[in-house]
Amino acid sequence: MTGIMHGKRGLIMGVANNHSIAWGIAKALAAEGAEIAFTYQGEALGKRVKPLAAEVGSDFLLPCDVEDLASVDAAFAALEARWGKIDFLVHAIGFSDKNELKGLYADTTRDNFVRTMIISCFSFTEVTKRAAAIMNEGGSILTLTYNGSQRVIPNYNVMGVAKAALEASMRYLAADYGPNDIRVNAISAGPVRTLAGAGIADARAMYSWNQKNAPLRRTATIEDIGGSALYLLSRLSNGVTGEVHYVDGGFNITSVPPLEVLKN
Ligand code: NAD
């Protein structure tokens, strides 16, 4: 196979099903010749991920729950044992108790705050450290964030706080690993109908608001996000690190709604 990712190998963490953003990224990378290993969270999701991995020519699946550091270590040990070195890592993992993805941010509990931060933010630091240790020069690492990190978005609550910390971590990691010629970036995706997305209250209303108000008058698809991820994970973006790249139909640049919405 030819393509810009020919000869490149890497790990994608966060495919749950064929609606997952990580799946859009996997398809884009595989179409350009990448060899991909996948992690999955628990056996039930493993059954869904296995046929998807096969679709992109992969039989390399590793169980990994980022709340269990031993399973993270085991996944990276297995990756190194089979491949030695890798060229890219995708972290598309997020979780918070859906009972706290509605109502007031002020009602966030201490337990869910800590759990959300560990799964949705600190896991990125933990997997980046392990990936960088086995990454070739010129390697690239990517995480997924959302504009609720920068602005108040109803119901996003503690996830917004975790995404703000995730974006800051991404910048510190970019500084840490830049001297090793390893780049670290984030894509800030607009709302996508996924399992994780459905956990946020009023997700449908948010989705249609974005469709009506984004400059492109639509939300980003997982294929759109895959294309941008391909750029950030390939040599096309060799001079780019520490960036949050928006793939949201332009929604983040808007302030007041377009006139056709405003005047109705
Ligand atoms: P998804 O439900 O398809 O993927 C979320 C993934 O996180 C799943 O594969 C799940 O198994 C994994 N995960 C959760 N807890 C985990 C744990 N303890 N250990 C290992 N894996 C765990 O949903 P998605 O929307 O594709 O989410 C991927 C990323 O994109 C998340 O970081 C999410 O916050 C981010 N994002 C989503 C949207 C959206 O609107 N859907 C927008 C911007 C950013």
UniProtKB/TrEMBL annotation:
SUPFAM superfamilies: NAD(P)-binding Rossmann-fold domains. The keyword Transferase does not apply. The active site is at Y146 (proton acceptor), Y156 (proton acceptor). It catalyses: a 2,3-saturated acyl-[ACP] + NAD(+) = a (2E)-enoyl-[ACP] + NADH + H(+). Its EC number is 1.3.1.9. Keywords: Fatty acid biosynthesis, Fatty acid metabolism, Lipid biosynthesis, Lipid metabolism, NAD, Oxidoreductase. Pathway: Lipid metabolism; fatty acid biosynthesis. One of its GO terms (biological process) is fatty acid biosynthetic process. GO terms for molecular function: enoyl-[acyl-carrier-protein] reductase (NADH) activity. It is a peripheral membrane protein. It is found in: Cell inner membrane. The keyword Oxidoreductase applies. InterPro entries: Enoyl-ACP_Rdtase_NADH, NAD(P)-bd_dom_sf, SDR_fam. NAD(+) binds at G14, S20, I21, Q41, D65, V66, I93, K163, V192, R193, T194, L195, A196. Pfam families: adh_short_C2. GO terms for cellular component: plasma membrane. It comes from the Bacteria. Belongs to the short-chain dehydrogenases/reductases (SDR) family. FabI subfamily. NCBIfam families: PRK06505.1 (NF005078). This is Enoyl-[acyl-carrier-protein] reductase [NADH].
